[in-house]
Write a structure and sequence with these properties.
L-arginine/glycine Amidinotransferase, Chain A, three-stranded mixed sheet, 15 strands, 22% strand
Length: 309
C-alpha cells in the first residue's frame, strides 16, 4: 500500500480562542457568523477539535497536537496553509494573504518535525509577504504527490509566480484554473472544491469556469488512474471536497460528518473500494470557512526511530 498520497501522521493546532476570522471573510464565501457568544463558540470548537483528535488516533493515525492560546490567530486551527512537508525530507513555509494569519507560523512545529522525522531542508517563501504575495500551502494547491501535479485555483491566495517557483523547487507540474461558485464568487482555496486520494479524486468540475480547462483537469485525473467522483455545488457547500486521505490501521478518508452526509450512496461506495470514510463532527469549526482537510497538515516525511507525539 502506497502512503505517498495518504500520510500516517498529521499536525493539528488546538484553538483556545477560535472565531471566524474577520480579515478573511471578504473573499471566503464559506464563512458564516455564529449567534453564540465568543466563549461558547471557543469552547465548542475546542470540544470538536479534541473529539476529532481522539477519532483519528483511535483509527491509527499519529497526531501531533500543538496548543494555540493566542487571541490574535483565529484561523490557527487550519495549519495546512502555512507549511507543508514532502517526501525526501523537505518542508515549505508559505506567505499568507491575511496579516493575522502570518502570526500562525511557529518554530516549535518545525523543530518537532526535525526531531521526529528526517528533514533535509526548509524552503521559506514567507518573506514574500513583504511584497504582498501569497501562496497558502495545501489550501491554495491540491497536490497529487504520485503524479506530481499541483492543481491550483487562481486567486489572491495563490500568486502565479510563487506557484511556478514552488513547482520548480518541489518538482510538481502546475495546473491552474479559474473557479467560481453558483453565485459567481471566486473560489478562494482549491481544497474546498477538490481532494485527491490514492485511487479516486473528489472534485466539482462544474465550478471550473473554462470548459477546456475543465476537460484538461478531468483528463489528467483520469490519466493518473483515479476514478473521478464529480461533486455538485451543494455538496461543495457542505465541504464534501475538503477531505484528506490518511493511513492509519487502514486507509482512511477523513472528512466532516456534514460532508459525508452530503455524499450519495454511489459516491460513498466508490470511496469505500479503497478507503474507509472517517467522519469528524466539527460544525463550529466549519463556520470559519474550512473543514477537515484544512485542519490537517500531513506529514510526508520519513520517521526517525522514536516518535514523540
Amino acid at each position: 500500500m502506497t502512503i505517498q498520497q495518504a500520510p500516517r501522521a498529521v499536525v493539528m493546532i488546538r484553538p483556545h480562542h477560535f472565531c471566524s476570522n474577520p480579515e478573511t471573510s471578504g473573499d471566503n464565501a464559506f464563512q458564516t457568523l455564529s449567534n453564540r457568544s465568543a466563549m461558547d463558540t471557543s469552547q465548542a470548537a475546542m470540544e470538536e477539535f479534541d473529539s476529532a483528535v481522539t477519532l483519528l488516533q483511535s483509527a491509527g493515525v499519529t497526531v501531533h497536537v500543538f496548543d494555540d492560546t493566542s487571541t490574535k490567530t483565529p484561523d490557527s486551527v487550519f495549519p495546512n496553509n502555512w507549511f507543508s512537508t514532502h517526501i525526501g525530507g523537505h518542508i515549505a513555509l508559505y506567505p499568507m494573504f491575511a496579516a493575522n494569519r502570518r502570526k500562525e507560523r511557529r518554530q516549535d512545529v518545525i523543530e518537532m518535525l526535525k526531531l521526529n522525522y528526517r528533514v533535509q531542508d526548509v524552503i521559506d517563501y514567507s518573506g514574500l509577504e513583504q511584497d504582498n504575495l501569497s501562496l497558502e500551502g495545501t489550501g491554495a494547491m491540491v497536490l497529487d504527490h504520485i503524479s506530481r501535479i499541483a492543481y491550483t485555483v487562481q486567486s489572491n491566495r495563490a500568486d502565479p509566480v510563487l506557484l511556478e517557483r514552488f513547482c520548480t523547487h518541489f518538482n510538481y507540474e502546475p495546473i491552474a484554473f479559474e473557479a467560481k461558485d453558483a453565485f459567481g464568487n471566486d473560489v478562494y482555496h482549491t481544497n474546498v472544491l477538490m481532494g485527491i486520494g490514492t485511487e479516486y479524486a473528489l472534485i466539482c468540475l462544474d465550478m471550473i469556469v473554462d470548459p477546456t480547462r475543465r476537460a484538461t483537469v478531468a483528463q489528467r485525473l483520469e490519466e493518473s488512474g483515479r476514478e473521478v467522483i464529480d461533486l455538485n455545488q451543494d455538496q461543495i457547500s457542505s465541504f464534501a471536497g475538503n477531505a484528506m486521505e490518511l493511513t492509519g490501521n487502514r486507509r482512511l478518508l477523513a472528512l466532516s460528518a456534514r460532508a459525508l452526509d452530503a455524499l450519495s450512496p454511489s459516491q460513498i461506495t466508490t470511496i469505500e473500494r479503497s478507503a474507509t470514510p472517517l467522519p469528524l463532527t466539527i460544525p463550529t469549526i466549519e463556520t470559519a470557512g474550512g473543514s477537515v482537510r484544512c485542519m490537517l497538515a500531513g506529514v510526508h516525511l520519513t520517521a526517525r526511530e522514536r516518535i514523540t507525539p
